[in-house]
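Q: Can someone sanity-check these two? First one:
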Amino acid sequence: MTLPSVFATAGGSPQLLGDIGPYNYVPTEWICILFLVLYSISTVLHLGQALKFKLWWMLPTATFAGLLEILGWSARFWSSQNPDLLTPYEMQLVGTIIAPTPLVAANFIILGKIINQVGPQYSRLTPKLYTIIFCCFDVICLIVQAFGGATAARAVSQGTDANDGREYYARRNCRPALSIYRTIELAGGWFGPVITTERYFDWLDGAMVTLAIYTLNFFHPGIWLNKNDPNAHAPQRVADEEASI
């Protein structure tokens, strides 16, 4: 189904029928490919790093976030080839909204590990409590975002306004920058000045999440969290001692 047919069915404004697809612009092909390549590289790296350091919790967090971003940007690339289709627009809407949530969950787990390594005596809560509390809030946030994304996608398909979806976006309290952007994005409805400007999305969503996910690649917990752990390099020390005998 195309956007003009949706508005024609829903009784939308006649002036919208000639607009270019649900974005009100055609996603730039090379930008979609660029982000697809960047997220694919990061996701493969996260998968390899999780397996190498045996940090299995990095699979449903950072690695899964990368997969969701790949899904979202694949849908935007699809839209660059078929700008009138609603299906890829709805896919990218849900994918790019949900993707940062498991990435933040990884940070919560890392926080607990850091506290455990530095010393629980320096924290008001135990490392386990930090992980449980913040990850529970993150799961709630994920559910709220999924519902908000679905509501927003349904609003697009029915040609209605974005009020319900915007209310759910406003509750995304774990990522202030993205929360502010998403809330402002929908403040003017589906055809406001922010949501219909591609560069805002590319810089304030795509680039910010790319920076966050690559930061975890370069400062991976598998390397830095074990660096000062007295037990982390015990097998290597034993092997060195045996080799010196």
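And here is the second, same format, sequence then tokens:
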Amino acid sequence: MAAKDGGEVSSKLVLYSYWQSSCAWRVRFALNLKGISYEYKAVNLAKGEQFTPEFEKLNPLHFVPVLVDGDVVVSDSHAILMYLEEKYPQRTLLPADLQRKALNLQVASIISSSIQPLHMVSILKYLEEKVGPQERLLFAQTNIENGFLVLEKLLKDFVGKYATGEEVCMADVFMAPQIAVATERFKIDMSKFPTLSRIYEVQKALPEFIAASPERQPDAVH
């Protein structure tokens, strides 16, 4: 079938996902924004399905998400988002303005490399075993708040209705799931970050974001 407004979809994309993964949430959100249909294949991280030989062929790092588009296999949410931008340019997530484009890429990089990896379950489990549950939570909260402080400063002169202007862009795709996880799982007080908090109130009302949310996924446990 053909994707809307350009970008040929030869067959339905397959997304290997886990309902609680914020990284997979980003990709689900982006696919919804672009109007691209996909097949959802659940990988139960809690049961260790990411370590099966079948999944290891797709991603030797044993992480979700993984996107399969015909013969192309892409793992890592940041790489997947960049692939989608190139292959399916409809409803672009990167603005034409170079400064704002660079800002979106910077926000995406900060979240995917300097915030989210520091509260991965494997990292926090290791910390809990070594130093206890209180240090585990404090470590996660400290790193999330440090990252949010950077984003708050970075976006204050560019923010519009959304993170970098009046359109939903890649920064929003990375930010919204991260803020959701920060508030719900790690009890971050968003009043410390008024810019991010205001943006998130708009982001979380988007139908594409709601449809991508963990509780809406077929493998969700309620």
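A (reply): Looked at the second one. The mean pLDDT is 92. The longest strand covers residues 13-17.
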